[in-house]
């Protein structure tokens, strides 16, 4: 079974630029999550999708972050404009449903200069 | 906000020894999960213990849960160099405000197993 795929693996941008991350979940997984993991901390949930609808985006900084999951499969997370404090690893995870085990992708490491 | 708090923050042991990590949390939970993260890689699910369970085993892993004390422990027996990683506890609970079921991670314990 293929795992959760993410791209790019690494990204370096300057502050105020925009950036987008892509995630392809495990086939058949209805629930998709985006997490932000700052160095030395645990992952923090940014947004949760059930199929193509948003279930929880309470911790998403909506003035600069946006996410979509078209057709209930792939998802993109965008930051516009980026700030220095957005430097982190962005992890995508998926699960069959919210109460099941989450499977994580390798993450995208973002550095904002 | 992060609910789970792991203790210790860092742990260094010799290969073959046992490693114990603890996790404390603040609110009621549906279940508690432990994850491992190797340097520069994604998280891997290790074990899930439900709120009505007290102990669970999986291979060299043993997890306990004490809901009265709001704490859990992860024991890795006969550690190997390959166990070197960060270990996170994650509490699963219902977010009544959003109507969602979500995981909240702690800051993790960094385990180093010396060959």
Produce a short descriptive summary:
By secondary structure, chain A is mostly beta strands.
How is the secondary structure organized here?
The complex is a heterodimer of chains A (113) and B (115).
Chain A: E1 5-7, E2 10-13, E3 19-24, E4 31-37, E5 44-50, E6 53-56, E7 65-68, E8 75-79, E9 88-95, E10 103-104, E11 108-112
Parallel strand pairs in A: 2-11
Antiparallel strand pairs in A: 1-3, 3-8, 4-5, 4-9, 5-6, 7-8, 9-10, 9-11
Chain B: E1 5-7, E2 10-14, E3 19-24, E4 31-37, E5 43-50, E6 55-58, E7 61-66, E8 71-76, E9 85-95, E10 100-105, E11 109-114
Parallel strand pairs in B: 2-11
Antiparallel strand pairs in B: 1-3, 3-8, 4-5, 4-9, 6-7, 7-8, 9-10, 9-11
Explain this structure.
The complex is a heterodimer of chains A (113) and B (115). Chain A has 113 residues and is mostly beta strands. Chain A has no helices and eleven strands. Chain A has strands spanning 5-7, 10-13, 19-24, 31-37, 44-50, 53-56, 65-68, 75-79, 88-95, 103-104, 108-112. Chain A is globular. Chain B has 115 residues and is mostly beta strands. Chain B is 0% helix and 59% strand. Chain B is built from no helices and eleven strands. Chain A binds chain B through residues 4, 40-45, 48, 55-56, 58, 91, 93, 98-99, 101-107, 109, and chain B through 2, 4, 30, 33, 35, 40-45, 48, 88, 90, 92, 95, 97-108.
């Amino acid at each position: 079974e293929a795992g959760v795929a993410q791209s790019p693996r690494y990204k370096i941008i300057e502050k105020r630029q925009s950036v987008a991350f892509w995630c392809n979940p495990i086939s058949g997984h209805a629930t998709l999550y985006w997490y932000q993991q700052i160095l030395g901390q645990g992952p923090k949930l940014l947004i949760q999708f059930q199929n193509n609808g948003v279930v929880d985006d309470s911790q998403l900084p909506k003035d600069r972050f946006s996410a979509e999951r078209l057709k209930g499969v792939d998802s993109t997370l965008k930051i516009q404009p980026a700030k220095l404090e957005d430097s982190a690893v962005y992890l995508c995870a998926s699960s069959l449903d919210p109460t099941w085990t989450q499977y994580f992708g390798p993450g995208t490491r973002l550095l904002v200069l | 906000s992060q609910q789970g708090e792991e203790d210790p923050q860092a742990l260094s042991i010799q290969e073959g020894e046992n490693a114990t990590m603890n996790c404390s949390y603040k609110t009621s939970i549906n279940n508690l999960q432990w994850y491992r993260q190797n340097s520069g890689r994604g998280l891997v699910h290790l074990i899930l213990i439900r709120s009505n369970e007290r102990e669970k085993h999986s291979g060299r892993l043993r997890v306990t849960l004490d809901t009265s004390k709001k704490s859990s422990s992860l024991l890795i027996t006969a550690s190997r160099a390959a166990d070197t990683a960060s270990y996170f506890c994650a509490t699963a609970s219902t977010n009544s405000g959003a109507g969602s079921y979500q995981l909240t991670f702690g800051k993790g314990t960094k385990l180093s197993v010396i060959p």
